[in-house]
């Protein structure tokens, strides 16, 4: 029987068989011709890595067990004990915790660069500085980094640029085409897109770095399981349809929220008064993504009432699913920053982050309206 599945089946197998010693030699001799052991490579995780690599225009990629594993791999492929890294101050809380609590123990030090100084890095650089880690769109205030300018500034100083492209996705922005050296994703978010997978991916512009990343994936055991890979691939097939839908809904929601008296500020790059609106428009091809933050009154009562009333935006501390949700930066992603860091980043009691899904937008507006009503 010659079975020809239309899509890649789930190779739920930790190991693969060989006929004899000759076939084993073929595995080592003809790279990519066979599989040996799923931690070293599996058809499903390779399919995911190859698809993201193609979308991002890279020279090779590795799928990882989470976005955190992707950040870990991207940083460690460029650094060793004694090195120093720069990190944008507006960064995912997990990234700064990883650097501060774990990479520091491995002898890697960090300087955080405020958003305003990202294009003027010379003052932060030491002889051992290797890279800058930044996000295309930052969490939670949706500040947008000019990646071409950042890449030029990094390369002028001999640094690599590592971009966390989770919020933008390659549908909006392809960092490697703007000069970045490495791009990574929490696949958990838009790439998989359905809130049912934890995964990550790192893509390199340079084939040698890509090969090193694969080796690190195997040796540190960062690689992704077949089932998670398969789900992420299924999600990824609709990414190019979902991102315009997220973006369109989010723009409608942002415009609506701007008119609501209970909302003191709306942070969304698609709004003309956003500080990087023009950059976001040009760098995102006219799409601004589905993420935004809003500022309610700075008291927990108001925030709780909004959360309790909203039906379409459940408080679920993640983002980027087809179904809308909301999160609370002060209590979740940015909980472990110092109070000064929180204030500096604009993360206050009234700040709520919305992940706008692809549901019919009228329902979302009606839900927000009743959740924000005075009584
Ligand atoms: C969620 C997230 C991560 C971490 O990804 P996990 O899949 O949760 O490990 C990293 N960066 C950004 C921007 C994220 O939103």
TrEMBL record:
Keyword Transferase belongs to the record: yes
Cofactor section: pyridoxal 5'-phosphate
Superkingdom of origin organism: Bacteria
Modification N6-(pyridoxal phosphate)lysine occurs at: 189
GO cellular component: cytoplasm
Molecular function via GO: carbon-sulfur lyase activity; pyridoxal phosphate binding; transaminase activity
InterPro entries: Cys/Met-Metab_PyrdxlP-dep_enz, PyrdxlP-dep_Trfase, PyrdxlP-dep_Trfase_major, PyrdxlP-dep_Trfase_small
Keywords, alphabetical: Aminotransferase, Pyridoxal phosphate, Transferase
Keyword Phosphoprotein found: no
One Gene Ontology term from the biological process aspect of the record: transsulfuration
Coiled coil: none
Leader sequence segment: none
UniProt family annotation: Belongs to the trans-sulfuration enzymes family.
Protein name listed in UniProt: Aminotransferase class I/II-fold pyridoxal phosphate-dependent enzyme
